[in-house]
Amino acid sequence: MAHSTIMFLTTFLLFFSSLAFAKTHYHDFVVQATKVTRLCKTRSSIRVNGQLPGPTLEVNNGDSLVIKVVNKAQYNVTIHWHGVRQIRTAWADGPEFITQCPIRPGGSYTYRFMISGQEGTLWWHAHSSWLRATVYGAIVIRPKEGDSYPFAKPNRESVIVLGEWWNANPIDVIRQATRSGGAPNVSDAYTINGQPGDLYNCSKKDTFIVPMGSGETNLIRVINAALNQQLFFTIAGHKLTVVGADASYVKPFTTSVLMLGPGQTTDVLIKGDQPPRQYYIAARAYASAQGAPFDNTTTTAILNYKTTATSAASNSNPIMPNLPPFNDTKTATAFTTSFRSPGKTLVPTTIDQNLFITAGLGINQCPINANSNTCQAPNGTRFTASMNNVSFVLPSNYSLLQAHHHGIPGVFTTDFPAKPPVKFDYTGNVSRSLWQPVRGTKVYKLKYGARVQVVLQGTSIFTAENHPIHLHGYDFYVVAEGIGNFDPKTDTARFNLVDPPLRNTVSLPVKGWAVIRFVADNPGTWIMHCHLDVHIGWGLAMVFVVDNGVGQLETLEQPPEDLPVC
After folding, report:
1. Could you give the dihedral angle defined by the CA atoms of residues 363, 367, 373 and 375, in that order, rounded to the nearest 10 degrees?
2. d(Cα 162, Cα 228) in Å, to the nearest integer?
3. Whole-number Å distance between alpha carbons of 333 and 491
4. 150: pLDDT confidence band, cut at 50, 70 and 90?
5. What is the protein's major site of localization (predicted)?
6. pTM more than 0.90
7. CA triple 13-14-16, angle to 5 deg
8. Main-chain dihedrals φ then ψ at residue 104, nearest 5 degrees
9. C or N terminus of the chain, fewer CB within 10 Å?
10. Residue 108 has what pLDDT?
């Protein structure tokens, strides 16, 4: 048989076998209010299938998902599959008024998409108002059938979803803040897999337990699903070997503490090499905004060695770990700068589009005759936020994707600035004249295949803080981060263009900057926003509109027939 024929048959068989192993997973998500008791109080809570967290989606790389979402709640809802690339399937991405109109009460929508080239941990959550406070769950992506992890197969796997709990209805909390113009009330607890843990009232009997065996290795998938808070995370007595983040593998490194911004995931290996007893798993706030109120409590779960059920040690209290102080930026920075890809990457080295985007808070002056109850930010003002001095406003009659795809005028403008309209000392004392942004639904257009660099620059307007910046539809390389104002003359030399980590959410350092790069190879309308939900509502967001390329494989699919209407 000719060599070329053998090569063809081998390639065909490999392609066929990959298709044969790929599965399609069907799920029904029913979003509705159910009674739940936490912190001694019972209230109605919006959840998926009555669960908190919602169902974990377990798939292999290459699989497809078909998820019918039925809205039996009283609020509009959408679901975002956080970190899923959604190649050509932007209609399934989920952010309200960006890629779809919301699913109205009584309505439904079926999300159809494929997991392609991603392995590790992602998650899903509501992307409408503050519903994601209780509407969220994990996505576990294992290697393709026949493939293996790039590390020894663990003996067991556990998912830990960090959340945030309010005794009040979270929708009421944000609506009250929107009326007042002030900051919303902080949460009453953090949670691990929906449970606050031993350090809160009325919570001890339901504390989540993670099983562990002596001599075993456990792959723990940690997700920060908190609404508004970066979190430190640790396990008493155990080293954490980081092997993945945001569904990309990383060069393994060992640490005693993680710092995750909302939206970020981190996969760690722990070894059962400690005396068999119980150890607390704990998380508390990393709160970088000086003087801003935050929930200063600690959530716990228990790492339970299987032998402890019959040992004397199980009668003693679990060992409590040391967590960093809430304002420990040094520890946060040491962690975020430890990430590398496992080998040489495809990071773009030639750039077609170079953007410089400021991200931070702002203040809107109230009209002279305004009711003081609507101006509860400092000095009788209202909080806002912006990127490049534009406070993003969601459309209401069409989604941006519909407007872009069908050429509907008047929904957005394409004049989002590629750099700040005024250059200033971004992290210094900023003139009050620069505190009030303009409002608008402005997007930035990218040609298919454009190689893009974005310098994200934090500001100290009103207060500086760490912002977890998430880009939909893409993974990006984080080539550098630093403190102060980004200086292209000196900071470019610090760029890692060999093995930068691939992420979907980057921690923009307090009073600092981060530089990301990606290739615009996915047509659609893709929002980039701060994943602190209070900041999204204030306008800390922008949208990239990526044009179709050439041919079917570079073109957005047609909209599904059941796409919700506004």
Report:
1. 10
2. 12
3. 17
4. very high
5. secreted
6. yes
7. 60
8. -70, 160
9. N
10. 98
